[in-house]
Protein backbone atom coordinates (compact mmCIF):
# COMPACT_ATOMS: atom_id res chain seq x y z
CA UNK A 1 0.00 0.00 0.00
CA UNK A 2 2.83 2.38 0.83
CA UNK A 3 4.17 2.18 -2.74
CA UNK A 4 0.73 3.03 -4.08
CA UNK A 5 0.47 5.95 -1.72
CA UNK A 6 3.88 7.20 -2.78
CA UNK A 7 2.89 7.01 -6.42
CA UNK A 8 -0.12 9.13 -5.64
CA UNK A 9 2.04 11.77 -4.04
CA UNK A 10 4.46 11.74 -6.94
CA UNK A 11 1.58 12.50 -9.29
CA UNK A 12 -0.15 14.91 -6.98
CA UNK A 13 2.87 17.06 -6.19
CA UNK A 14 1.11 18.16 -3.03
CA UNK A 15 2.59 20.87 -0.89
CA UNK A 16 1.84 23.63 1.55
CA UNK A 17 0.13 25.64 4.25
CA UNK A 18 -2.31 28.44 4.94
CA UNK A 19 -0.81 31.79 5.78
CA UNK A 20 1.69 31.09 8.53
CA UNK A 21 1.80 33.02 11.78
CA UNK A 22 4.89 34.78 10.52
CA UNK A 23 3.46 34.83 7.02
CA UNK A 24 5.44 35.75 3.98
CA UNK A 25 4.41 39.00 2.39
CA UNK A 26 2.09 38.61 -0.58
CA UNK A 27 3.40 40.02 -3.82
CA UNK A 28 0.81 40.99 -6.41
CA UNK A 29 2.19 42.14 -9.74
CA UNK A 30 -0.06 44.39 -11.78
CA UNK A 31 0.41 44.64 -15.53
CA UNK A 32 -0.65 47.85 -17.25
CA UNK A 33 1.07 47.31 -20.56
CA UNK A 34 2.15 44.41 -22.72
CA UNK A 35 5.89 43.75 -22.77
CA UNK A 36 7.53 41.74 -25.53
CA UNK A 37 9.05 38.71 -23.84
CA UNK A 38 12.40 37.30 -24.91
CA UNK A 39 12.75 33.73 -26.14
CA UNK A 40 14.42 32.58 -22.97
CA UNK A 41 13.87 31.75 -19.33
CA UNK A 42 16.35 32.85 -16.67
CA UNK A 43 16.66 30.71 -13.52
CA UNK A 44 18.72 32.02 -10.60
CA UNK A 45 19.25 31.01 -6.99
CA UNK A 46 19.78 33.29 -4.01
CA UNK A 47 23.51 33.86 -3.53
CA UNK A 48 23.26 32.36 -0.03
CA UNK A 49 22.34 28.91 -1.43
CA UNK A 50 25.21 26.43 -1.45
CA UNK A 51 23.71 23.83 -3.81
CA UNK A 52 20.32 23.38 -5.44
CA UNK A 53 19.22 20.73 -7.94
CA UNK A 54 16.12 20.60 -10.14
CA UNK A 55 14.88 18.59 -13.09
CA UNK A 56 14.12 20.68 -16.15
CA UNK A 57 11.70 19.83 -18.97
CA UNK A 58 11.76 22.04 -22.05
CA UNK A 59 9.60 19.66 -24.10
CA UNK A 60 6.53 17.57 -23.15
CA UNK A 61 8.00 14.64 -25.08
CA UNK A 62 11.46 14.98 -23.60
CA UNK A 63 12.74 11.48 -22.83
CA UNK A 64 14.80 12.43 -19.77
CA UNK A 65 14.84 15.69 -17.79
CA UNK A 66 17.76 18.06 -18.06
CA UNK A 67 19.65 18.24 -14.77
CA UNK A 68 20.26 21.69 -13.44
CA UNK A 69 22.73 22.33 -10.60
CA UNK A 70 22.94 25.84 -9.18
CA UNK A 71 24.52 27.44 -6.12
CA UNK A 72 27.83 28.63 -4.69
CA UNK A 73 29.19 25.08 -4.43
CA UNK A 74 28.33 24.48 -8.08
CA UNK A 75 30.04 27.75 -9.08
CA UNK A 76 26.92 28.71 -10.99
CA UNK A 77 24.07 30.78 -9.56
CA UNK A 78 22.20 31.57 -12.76
CA UNK A 79 21.41 29.98 -16.12
CA UNK A 80 19.72 31.27 -19.29
CA UNK A 81 17.57 28.68 -21.09
CA UNK A 82 16.77 29.48 -24.73
CA UNK A 83 13.13 28.57 -25.43
CA UNK A 84 10.08 29.69 -27.36
CA UNK A 85 7.75 27.58 -25.24
CA UNK A 86 6.77 27.04 -21.64
CA UNK A 87 9.13 24.89 -19.57
CA UNK A 88 8.67 22.95 -16.32
CA UNK A 89 10.88 22.45 -13.30
CA UNK A 90 10.25 19.49 -10.99
CA UNK A 91 11.90 18.44 -7.76
CA UNK A 92 11.41 17.14 -4.26
CA UNK A 93 12.39 14.53 -1.71
CA UNK A 94 10.44 11.23 -1.56
CA UNK A 95 11.72 10.49 1.94
CA UNK A 96 9.68 13.36 3.33
CA UNK A 97 6.91 13.17 0.71
CA UNK A 98 7.90 16.59 -0.61
CA UNK A 99 7.28 17.27 -4.29
CA UNK A 100 6.89 20.47 -6.27
CA UNK A 101 6.39 21.55 -9.86
CA UNK A 102 6.43 24.96 -11.50
CA UNK A 103 5.61 26.00 -15.04
CA UNK A 104 7.51 28.92 -16.52
CA UNK A 105 6.62 30.97 -19.59
CA UNK A 106 9.16 32.36 -22.04
CA UNK A 107 10.53 35.67 -20.79
CA UNK A 108 10.20 34.68 -17.12
CA UNK A 109 13.04 35.36 -14.70
CA UNK A 110 12.82 32.98 -11.75
CA UNK A 111 14.61 33.53 -8.44
CA UNK A 112 14.79 30.56 -6.07
CA UNK A 113 15.29 30.77 -2.32
CA UNK A 114 14.81 28.09 0.34
CA UNK A 115 12.95 28.14 3.66
CA UNK A 116 13.54 25.80 6.59
CA UNK A 117 10.45 23.86 7.65
CA UNK A 118 9.95 21.32 10.46
CA UNK A 119 8.67 17.96 9.17
CA UNK A 120 8.54 16.17 12.51
CA UNK A 121 10.34 16.26 15.88
CA UNK A 122 13.63 15.10 14.40
CA UNK A 123 13.51 16.26 10.78
CA UNK A 124 13.86 19.64 9.13
CA UNK A 125 13.82 20.29 5.43
CA UNK A 126 14.57 23.08 2.99
CA UNK A 127 11.66 23.88 0.71
CA UNK A 128 12.24 26.10 -2.35
CA UNK A 129 10.19 29.25 -2.65
CA UNK A 130 9.94 31.07 -5.95
CA UNK A 131 9.53 34.61 -7.23
CA UNK A 132 9.07 35.45 -10.90
CA UNK A 133 9.66 38.91 -12.29
CA UNK A 134 7.58 40.02 -15.27
CA UNK A 135 4.72 37.71 -14.22
CA UNK A 136 1.09 38.44 -13.43
CA UNK A 137 0.91 35.54 -10.96
CA UNK A 138 0.82 36.27 -7.23
CA UNK A 139 3.32 34.85 -4.77
CA UNK A 140 0.69 32.43 -3.43
CA UNK A 141 -0.10 31.12 -6.90
CA UNK A 142 3.58 30.54 -7.66
CA UNK A 143 4.17 28.90 -4.27
CA UNK A 144 0.91 27.04 -3.75
CA UNK A 145 2.77 23.69 -3.48
CA UNK A 146 4.80 25.09 -0.58
CA UNK A 147 1.77 26.48 1.22
CA UNK A 148 -0.26 23.27 0.92
CA UNK A 149 2.61 20.97 1.91
CA UNK A 150 3.39 22.88 5.11
CA UNK A 151 -0.34 23.06 5.93
CA UNK A 152 -0.70 19.29 5.50
CA UNK A 153 2.33 18.69 7.72
CA UNK A 154 0.97 21.05 10.37
CA UNK A 155 -2.48 19.39 10.34
CA UNK A 156 -0.99 15.84 10.25
CA UNK A 157 -2.60 15.06 6.91
CA UNK A 158 0.91 13.92 5.92
CA UNK A 159 2.95 12.25 8.67
CA UNK A 160 6.60 11.62 7.84
CA UNK A 161 8.40 8.69 9.49
CA UNK A 162 11.05 9.78 12.00
CA UNK A 163 13.35 7.06 10.70
CA UNK A 164 13.40 8.52 7.15
CA UNK A 165 11.69 5.44 5.70
CA UNK A 166 9.29 6.87 3.13
CA UNK A 167 7.36 3.58 3.04
CA UNK A 168 6.25 4.30 6.60
CA UNK A 169 4.94 7.77 5.80
CA UNK A 170 1.16 8.04 6.15
CA UNK A 171 -1.41 10.10 4.29
CA UNK A 172 -4.99 11.02 5.14
CA UNK A 173 -6.39 11.66 1.65
CA UNK A 174 -9.69 13.05 2.87
CA UNK A 175 -7.89 15.54 5.07
CA UNK A 176 -5.40 16.40 2.31
CA UNK A 177 -8.29 17.22 -0.02
CA UNK A 178 -10.16 19.22 2.62
CA UNK A 179 -7.00 21.16 3.47
CA UNK A 180 -6.48 22.04 -0.20
CA UNK A 181 -10.02 23.40 -0.53
CA UNK A 182 -9.76 25.35 2.75
CA UNK A 183 -6.46 26.85 1.67
CA UNK A 184 -7.76 27.83 -1.76
CA UNK A 185 -10.89 29.44 -0.26
CA UNK A 186 -8.80 31.30 2.32
CA UNK A 187 -6.37 32.63 -0.28
CA UNK A 188 -9.23 33.74 -2.52
CA UNK A 189 -10.95 35.52 0.36
CA UNK A 190 -7.76 37.53 1.03
CA UNK A 191 -7.31 38.30 -2.70
CA UNK A 192 -4.03 36.36 -2.67
CA UNK A 193 -5.01 34.32 -5.73
CA UNK A 194 -7.11 35.03 -8.80
CA UNK A 195 -10.58 33.60 -9.42
CA UNK A 196 -9.21 31.58 -12.33
CA UNK A 197 -6.48 30.03 -10.18
CA UNK A 198 -9.01 29.25 -7.47
CA UNK A 199 -11.47 27.48 -9.80
CA UNK A 200 -8.82 25.61 -11.81
CA UNK A 201 -7.07 24.28 -8.74
CA UNK A 202 -10.32 23.25 -7.06
CA UNK A 203 -10.92 21.00 -10.05
CA UNK A 204 -7.37 19.69 -9.92
CA UNK A 205 -7.60 18.89 -6.21
CA UNK A 206 -10.85 16.98 -6.76
CA UNK A 207 -9.22 15.00 -9.58
CA UNK A 208 -6.19 14.17 -7.43
CA UNK A 209 -8.43 13.11 -4.56
CA UNK A 210 -10.60 10.91 -6.81
CA UNK A 211 -7.47 9.34 -8.32
CA UNK A 212 -6.10 8.50 -4.87
CA UNK A 213 -9.41 6.86 -3.87
CA UNK A 214 -9.36 4.71 -7.01
CA UNK A 215 -5.78 3.61 -6.44
CA UNK A 216 -6.47 2.83 -2.81
CA UNK A 217 -9.56 0.78 -3.73
CA UNK A 218 -7.66 -1.10 -6.42
CA UNK A 219 -4.78 -1.89 -4.07
CA UNK A 220 -7.11 -3.23 -1.38
CA UNK A 221 -9.45 -4.92 -3.90
CA UNK A 222 -12.41 -3.01 -2.41
CA UNK A 223 -15.54 -1.69 -4.11
CA UNK A 224 -16.02 2.01 -4.74
CA UNK A 225 -18.98 3.88 -6.24
CA UNK A 226 -17.59 5.81 -9.21
CA UNK A 227 -20.49 8.29 -9.13
CA UNK A 228 -19.56 9.28 -5.57
CA UNK A 229 -16.21 10.59 -6.85
CA UNK A 230 -18.02 13.46 -8.55
CA UNK A 231 -15.95 13.45 -11.74
CA UNK A 232 -17.54 13.42 -15.21
CA UNK A 233 -16.18 10.50 -17.21
CA UNK A 234 -16.16 12.09 -20.69
CA UNK A 235 -15.50 15.76 -20.13
CA UNK A 236 -14.07 17.34 -23.28
CA UNK A 237 -13.19 20.53 -21.41
CA UNK A 238 -10.63 18.57 -19.36
CA UNK A 239 -8.92 16.65 -22.16
CA UNK A 240 -5.75 18.74 -21.84
CA UNK A 241 -5.66 18.45 -18.05
CA UNK A 242 -2.98 15.94 -16.98
CA UNK A 243 -4.79 15.33 -13.68
CA UNK A 244 -7.94 14.34 -15.58
CA UNK A 245 -5.96 11.94 -17.78
CA UNK A 246 -4.39 10.50 -14.63
CA UNK A 247 -7.86 9.98 -13.15
CA UNK A 248 -9.11 8.16 -16.27
CA UNK A 249 -6.02 5.96 -16.31
CA UNK A 250 -6.58 5.03 -12.67
CA UNK A 251 -10.25 4.32 -13.41
CA UNK A 252 -9.40 2.01 -16.33
CA UNK A 253 -7.01 0.06 -14.12
CA UNK A 254 -9.63 -0.16 -11.37
CA UNK A 255 -12.48 -1.26 -13.64
CA UNK A 256 -10.71 -3.63 -16.00
CA UNK A 257 -7.40 -4.67 -14.42
CA UNK A 258 -8.22 -4.98 -10.74
CA UNK A 259 -6.45 -8.33 -10.40
CA UNK A 260 -3.18 -7.17 -11.98
CA UNK A 261 -0.51 -5.41 -9.96
CA UNK A 262 1.35 -4.02 -12.95
CA UNK A 263 0.09 -3.60 -16.49
CA UNK A 264 2.18 -2.53 -19.47
CA UNK A 265 1.05 0.59 -21.30
CA UNK A 266 1.03 -1.40 -24.54
CA UNK A 267 -1.46 -3.83 -22.93
CA UNK A 268 -3.67 -0.93 -21.83
CA UNK A 269 -3.47 0.58 -25.33
CA UNK A 270 -4.56 -2.72 -26.91
CA UNK A 271 -7.42 -3.11 -24.47
CA UNK A 272 -8.86 0.36 -25.07
CA UNK A 273 -8.31 0.06 -28.83
CA UNK A 274 -10.13 -3.29 -29.13
CA UNK A 275 -12.89 -3.19 -26.50
CA UNK A 276 -16.04 -1.25 -25.71
CA UNK A 277 -15.56 0.72 -22.50
CA UNK A 278 -17.13 3.73 -20.77
CA UNK A 279 -15.03 5.99 -23.04
CA UNK A 280 -16.66 7.96 -25.82
CA UNK A 281 -14.81 8.01 -29.13
CA UNK A 282 -13.23 11.45 -28.51
CA UNK A 283 -12.14 10.42 -25.00
CA UNK A 284 -10.81 7.15 -26.41
CA UNK A 285 -8.56 9.10 -28.80
CA UNK A 286 -7.15 11.11 -25.92
CA UNK A 287 -6.50 8.02 -23.79
CA UNK A 288 -4.82 6.15 -26.62
CA UNK A 289 -2.64 9.23 -27.09
CA UNK A 290 -1.73 9.13 -23.38
CA UNK A 291 -0.80 5.43 -23.55
CA UNK A 292 1.19 6.04 -26.73
CA UNK A 293 3.16 8.76 -24.93
CA UNK A 294 4.01 6.28 -22.15
CA UNK A 295 5.02 3.67 -24.74
CA UNK A 296 7.26 6.31 -26.34
CA UNK A 297 9.05 6.76 -23.00
CA UNK A 298 9.00 3.28 -21.47
CA UNK A 299 8.54 0.75 -24.28
CA UNK A 300 10.48 2.50 -27.03
CA UNK A 301 10.99 -0.59 -29.20
CA UNK A 302 7.21 -0.87 -29.64
CA UNK A 303 6.58 2.80 -30.37
CA UNK A 304 6.47 2.77 -34.19
CA UNK A 305 4.16 -0.24 -34.23
CA UNK A 306 1.71 1.42 -31.85
CA UNK A 307 1.97 4.77 -33.61
CA UNK A 308 0.84 3.04 -36.80
CA UNK A 309 -2.13 1.49 -34.97
CA UNK A 310 -2.95 4.83 -33.36
CA UNK A 311 -3.04 6.57 -36.74
CA UNK A 312 -5.54 4.02 -38.08
CA UNK A 313 -7.89 4.45 -35.08
CA UNK A 314 -7.50 8.07 -34.07
CA UNK A 315 -9.87 10.64 -35.61
CA UNK A 316 -8.32 13.67 -33.89
CA UNK A 317 -6.19 15.53 -36.47
CA UNK A 318 -4.42 17.62 -33.83
CA UNK A 319 -3.17 14.49 -32.06
CA UNK A 320 -2.20 12.91 -35.38
CA UNK A 321 -0.16 15.98 -36.37
CA UNK A 322 1.55 16.01 -32.97
CA UNK A 323 2.89 12.51 -33.48
CA UNK A 324 3.82 13.28 -37.08
CA UNK A 325 6.00 16.08 -35.72
CA UNK A 326 7.54 13.73 -33.12
CA UNK A 327 8.40 11.20 -35.83
CA UNK A 328 9.92 13.94 -37.99
CA UNK A 329 12.12 15.08 -35.08
CA UNK A 330 13.22 11.50 -34.48
CA UNK A 331 14.22 11.14 -38.12
CA UNK A 332 16.20 14.39 -37.96
CA UNK A 333 17.87 13.17 -34.79
CA UNK A 334 18.89 9.92 -36.49
CA UNK A 335 20.14 11.76 -39.57
CA UNK A 336 22.26 14.09 -37.45
CA UNK A 337 23.94 11.19 -35.69
CA UNK A 338 24.41 9.08 -38.81
CA UNK A 339 25.50 11.52 -41.51
CA UNK A 340 28.52 9.31 -42.20
CA UNK A 341 29.83 5.93 -41.17
CA UNK A 342 30.56 6.69 -37.53
CA UNK A 343 31.96 3.28 -36.54
CA UNK A 344 35.45 4.77 -36.32
CA UNK A 345 34.22 7.53 -34.02
CA UNK A 346 33.74 10.62 -36.17
CA UNK A 347 33.15 13.75 -34.08
CA UNK A 348 30.96 16.74 -34.96
CA UNK A 349 30.29 20.01 -33.19
CA UNK A 350 27.59 22.71 -33.29
CA UNK A 351 29.85 25.44 -34.67
CA UNK A 352 30.74 24.18 -38.12
CA UNK A 353 29.62 20.52 -38.14
CA UNK A 354 33.04 19.42 -39.43
CA UNK A 355 33.54 15.67 -39.23
CA UNK A 356 36.83 14.68 -37.62
CA UNK A 357 38.38 11.63 -36.03
CA UNK A 358 39.65 11.94 -32.48
CA UNK A 359 43.21 11.55 -33.78
CA UNK A 360 42.72 14.56 -36.10
CA UNK A 361 41.36 16.69 -33.23
CA UNK A 362 44.27 15.72 -30.99
CA UNK A 363 46.81 16.45 -33.72
CA UNK A 364 45.44 20.01 -34.03
CA UNK A 365 46.66 20.74 -30.50
CA UNK A 366 50.12 19.20 -30.54
CA UNK A 367 52.37 21.34 -28.36
CA UNK A 368 49.60 21.83 -25.78
CA UNK A 369 48.44 19.76 -22.85
CA UNK A 370 44.99 18.36 -23.71
CA UNK A 371 42.27 17.30 -21.26
CA UNK A 372 39.46 15.23 -22.78
CA UNK A 373 36.10 15.09 -20.96
CA UNK A 374 33.66 12.26 -21.80
CA UNK A 375 30.14 13.17 -20.70
CA UNK A 376 26.42 12.95 -21.56
CA UNK A 377 23.35 15.10 -20.98
CA UNK A 378 21.83 12.45 -18.68
CA UNK A 379 24.98 11.99 -16.56
CA UNK A 380 24.51 13.83 -13.27
CA UNK A 381 28.16 13.61 -12.06
CA UNK A 382 29.31 14.82 -15.49
CA UNK A 383 27.09 17.89 -15.32
CA UNK A 384 28.26 18.70 -11.79
CA UNK A 385 31.85 18.87 -13.06
CA UNK A 386 31.08 21.42 -15.79
CA UNK A 387 31.62 24.55 -13.64
CA UNK A 388 35.03 23.18 -12.59
CA UNK A 389 35.98 22.63 -16.22
CA UNK A 390 35.06 26.23 -16.89
CA UNK A 391 37.23 27.25 -13.94
CA UNK A 392 40.16 25.27 -15.40
CA UNK A 393 39.79 27.20 -18.65
CA UNK A 394 40.13 30.46 -16.74
CA UNK A 395 43.18 29.24 -14.77
CA UNK A 396 45.28 28.20 -17.79
CA UNK A 397 45.97 30.02 -21.05
CA UNK A 398 44.42 28.33 -24.08
CA UNK A 399 47.84 28.14 -25.75
CA UNK A 400 48.97 25.89 -22.89
CA UNK A 401 45.89 23.80 -22.00
CA UNK A 402 43.10 22.72 -24.35
CA UNK A 403 39.90 21.12 -23.04
CA UNK A 404 37.90 18.91 -25.38
CA UNK A 405 34.38 17.76 -24.53
CA UNK A 406 33.00 14.61 -26.14
CA UNK A 407 29.38 13.65 -25.54
CA UNK A 408 28.29 10.02 -25.87
CA UNK A 409 24.59 10.99 -26.07
CA UNK A 410 22.40 8.90 -28.36
CA UNK A 411 19.84 11.70 -28.48
CA UNK A 412 21.16 14.58 -30.57
CA UNK A 413 18.49 17.02 -29.33
CA UNK A 414 19.33 16.24 -25.69
CA UNK A 415 22.99 17.00 -26.38
CA UNK A 416 22.08 20.31 -28.01
CA UNK A 417 19.92 21.31 -25.00
CA UNK A 418 22.62 20.32 -22.52
CA UNK A 419 25.28 22.15 -24.54
CA UNK A 420 23.18 25.32 -24.45
CA UNK A 421 22.61 25.01 -20.70
CA UNK A 422 26.32 24.47 -20.06
CA UNK A 423 27.33 27.33 -22.42
CA UNK A 424 29.13 24.88 -24.73
CA UNK A 425 27.09 25.31 -27.91
CA UNK A 426 29.53 27.92 -29.30
CA UNK A 427 32.63 25.94 -28.29
CA UNK A 428 34.44 24.52 -31.33
CA UNK A 429 35.73 21.58 -29.31
CA UNK A 430 32.39 20.45 -27.89
CA UNK A 431 31.72 17.25 -29.88
CA UNK A 432 29.22 14.43 -30.08
CA UNK A 433 30.09 10.89 -31.17
CA UNK A 434 27.67 8.16 -32.18
CA UNK A 435 28.07 4.40 -32.30
CA UNK A 436 30.11 5.04 -29.20
CA UNK A 437 30.50 1.42 -28.08
CA UNK A 438 31.81 0.46 -31.55
CA UNK A 439 34.31 3.30 -31.81
CA UNK A 440 38.07 2.79 -31.64
CA UNK A 441 38.19 5.52 -28.97
CA UNK A 442 35.94 3.45 -26.69
CA UNK A 443 37.97 0.28 -27.28
CA UNK A 444 41.41 1.87 -26.99
CA UNK A 445 40.83 3.54 -23.63
CA UNK A 446 38.21 1.08 -22.28
CA UNK A 447 35.82 3.90 -21.33
CA UNK A 448 32.90 2.02 -19.81
CA UNK A 449 31.74 4.63 -17.30
CA UNK A 450 31.48 8.42 -17.34
CA UNK A 451 32.56 11.00 -16.38
CA UNK A 452 35.99 9.99 -17.58
CA UNK A 453 38.97 12.22 -18.24
CA UNK A 454 42.03 11.62 -20.41
CA UNK A 455 45.11 13.83 -20.10
CA UNK A 456 47.54 14.08 -23.05
CA UNK A 457 50.97 15.68 -23.02
CA UNK A 458 52.34 18.28 -25.42
CA UNK A 459 53.74 15.46 -27.56
CA UNK A 460 50.23 14.03 -28.05
CA UNK A 461 50.91 10.97 -25.91
CA UNK A 462 48.68 9.87 -23.06
CA UNK A 463 49.78 10.95 -19.58
CA UNK A 464 46.82 9.62 -17.61
CA UNK A 465 43.96 7.60 -19.07
CA UNK A 466 41.88 8.03 -15.91
CA UNK A 467 42.75 11.54 -14.73
CA UNK A 468 41.28 13.10 -11.56
CA UNK A 469 38.02 15.01 -11.91
CA UNK A 470 38.18 18.80 -12.47
CA UNK A 471 36.74 19.33 -8.97
CA UNK A 472 39.80 17.57 -7.48
CA UNK A 473 42.93 19.64 -6.78
CA UNK A 474 45.10 16.73 -7.95
CA UNK A 475 44.16 17.49 -11.55
CA UNK A 476 45.54 21.05 -11.37
CA UNK A 477 48.81 19.69 -9.97
CA UNK A 478 48.98 17.11 -12.75
CA UNK A 479 48.37 19.72 -15.45
CA UNK A 480 51.02 22.09 -14.01
CA UNK A 481 53.53 19.26 -13.92
CA UNK A 482 52.78 18.45 -17.58
CA UNK A 483 53.17 22.01 -18.93
Oligomer: single chain
In DSSP terms (H or I, runs of 4 or more residues), the helix count works out at: 15
In total, the number of strands is 16
Query: What is the residue-mean pLDDT, rounded to a whole number?
Result: 87
Tell the overall outline: globular
Strand content: 15-25%
Strand order of the largest sheet: 11-14-13-12-15-16
What would you report as the Rg, rounded to the nearest angstrom?
Answer: 25 Å
Largest sheet: 6 strands, mixed
Write a concise synopsis of the structure shown.
This protein is of the alpha+beta class and 483 residues long. 40% of the residues lie in helices and 18% in strands.
What does this structure look like?
This protein is α+β, with helices and mostly antiparallel strands and 483 residues long. The protein has 15 helices and 16 strands. A hairpin with an 8-residue loop joins strand 2 and strand 3 (66-70). Helix 4 (173-189) packs antiparallel against helix 5 and helix 8 (281-298) packs antiparallel against helix 9 (303-313).
Which helices and strands appear, and what pairs or packs with what?
Blueprint: H1 2-12, E1 40-45, E2 52-57, E3 66-70, E4 78-82, E5 87-93, E6 98-104, E7 109-118, E8 124-133, H2 139-142, H3 144-154, E9 158-159, E10 170-171, H4 173-189, H5 195-220, H6 242-256, H7 265-274, H8 281-298, H9 303-313, H10 317-337, E11 347-348, H11 358-364, E12 369-375, H12 380-395, E13 401-407, H13 412-421, E14 430-433, H14 440-445, E15 452-456, E16 462-464, H15 473-482
Parallel strand pairs: 1-7, 12-13, 13-14
Antiparallel strand pairs: 1-4, 2-3, 2-5, 5-6, 7-8, 9-10, 11-14, 12-15, 15-16
Helix pairs in contact: 1-5, 3-4, 4-5, 5-6, 7-8, 8-9
Amino acid sequence: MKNILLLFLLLSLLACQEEQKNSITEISIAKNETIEKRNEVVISVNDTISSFFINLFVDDLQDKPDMLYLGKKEQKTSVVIPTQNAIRIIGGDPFISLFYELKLQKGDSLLIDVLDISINKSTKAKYPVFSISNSDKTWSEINFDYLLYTYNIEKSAIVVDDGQNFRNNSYDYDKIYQNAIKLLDSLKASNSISNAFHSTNKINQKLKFATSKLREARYHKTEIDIDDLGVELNNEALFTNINYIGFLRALILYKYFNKNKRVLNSVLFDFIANNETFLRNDTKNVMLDAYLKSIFFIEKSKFKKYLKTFNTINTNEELKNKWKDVLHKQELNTDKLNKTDRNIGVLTNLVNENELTFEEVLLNYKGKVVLVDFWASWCSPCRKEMPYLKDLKSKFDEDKLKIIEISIDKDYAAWVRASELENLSKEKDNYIISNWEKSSLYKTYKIKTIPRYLLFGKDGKIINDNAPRPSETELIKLIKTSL
